[in-house]
Amino acid sequence: MSRAERTGKGRGRTGQVLSSVAVAVGCVLFLGGFVWAAVLYQPYAVPTDSMSPTVEAGDRVLAERIDGDEVRRGDVVVFLDPLWGDMPMIKRVVGVGGDTVECCDERGRMTVNGDPVDEPYRLERERASFTTFEASVPEGQLFLLGDHREGSLDSRTHLEDANNGSVPRDAVTGRVDATVWPLGHAGMVERPAGFADLPGGTSRPGPLGPALAAIGAGALLILGGAGHGAIGSVRGKRAGLTHNGGTHG
Questions:
Q1: What secondary structure does DSSP assign to 17-79, as a single string?
Q2: 246 pLDDT exceeds 80?
Q3: What pTM was estimated for this model as a whole?
Q4: I want to staple 206 with a disulfide (CB 3.0 to 4.6 A). Which of 18, 59, 64, 150 is the partner?
Q5: How many helices (H) and strands (E) does the chain have?
Q6: Alpha-helical segments (H) within the chain
């Protein structure tokens, strides 16, 4: 065997080892990211267009499983309250315990504790609500509105209830981080800047982005490692055939 042949075989073995390592690391990243997302997130189907255009009726969303104490103003949450119905609902939190939520000021904006809130996500841009309201939110409660204010049955509808239309924090089962279906409407749900300057600020994005990055990187490593290994194997077989042909020729 010539030195060139030994060198070629050595490189081939190194390539096979690297390919195997890439596939192994890729499997860890892919499965780890998938399990991570599955443990922390729950999928939901959006039943109505009350949160349009942020999420539309029929969309599939991923909601991070959180405790009600983690909710901040501006969050789009999934909650279940028997007074509102017997199925999970999706609304945006605009007020927390101790807040006074009112609409509207002279420019048609909603105010929280007297501070106007910019709401670029609203479908109707003229006024934050076409019905005027004022509500004091009890401690431990959340005041919820839909982004499609004309088509949303929300806290405004329940203002005559004992808690001024609010729901308990522990009614929240998840915070919506992303729309995943249909693909044309897929994307992350942004935290609105309009609530950032209020006490407590807005919530931080969940770990969905890193989990998806791990899944994507894992898939690329698996495909790349498997492809490189297959190419190396074919080349090795061709080299062996050529060598055998030359020896017996």
A1: HHHHHHHHHHHHHHHHHHHHHHHHEEEEE--SSTTTTTS-TT-EEEEE---GGG--TT-EEEE
A2: no
A3: 0.78
A4: 64
A5: 2, 12
A6: 3-40, 208-248
